[in-house]
Amino acid sequence: MSATKKTVPFAGTKEQEMELLKVIQDNKNDKGALMPVLQQAQNIYGYLPREVQVIISNEMDIPLERIYGVVTFYSQFSLYPKGKNRISVCLGTACYVKGSGDLLDKLKELLEIDNGECTPDGKFSLDACRCVGACGLAPVLMVNDDVYGRLKVEDVAGILKKYE
Questions:
Q1: Rounded CA gap, 109 and 11, in Å?
Q2: Where is the signal peptide (predicted)?
Q3: Per-run averaged pLDDT (10 residues), the chain, 164 residues
Q4: 3-class secondary structure for the chain?
């Protein structure tokens, strides 16, 4: 895998930008408005790419570095788009000792992306997580809200086919 994240090109619409500008205008004069603006911007776009951060920076007169610092500090924010199908592989203790690391490796291989990335066609994104609360089904992965448990590496390709 490359050292830089693979991602789909930014494809924000004029409507999204107008919605963001309204959110900024409604919050611009409130102290501490950056977090709510970032949260609403992520709701609008699904993530917070540089292009969106620049708009917020310019409109709120906040240095881009400060915005980037907030976005990268809080795990609720994402710099990268999520795919139509969001795959989460549990790397919690129970899952990890039963082979979830191998499941993650197989997904990286099949999707040709790394953890935290989105396929170029926008169909899949891949994220490791710490626990999904299904330890009795270890190892577990989720695709959107669907939980798959007691998996073997050989099961991964079949699961992906369901979502293509």
A1: 26
A2: none
A3: 61 96 94 95 95 97 97 89 94 97 98 92 93 95 97 98 96
A4: CCCCCCCCCCCCCHHHHHHHHHHHHHHCCCCCCHHHHHHHHHHHHCCCCHHHHHHHHHHHCCCHHHHHHHHHHCCCCCCCCCCCEEEEEECCHHHHHCCHHHHHHHHHHHHCCCCCCECCCCCEEEEEECCCCCHHHCCCEEECCEEECCCCHHHHHHHHHCCC
Q: Which residues are annotated as a binding site?
A: 90, 95, 131, 135
Phi, psi of 148 (to 5 degrees): -120, 125
Q: Which residues are annotated as a binding site for [2Fe-2S] cluster?
A: 90, 95, 131, 135
pTM: 0.74
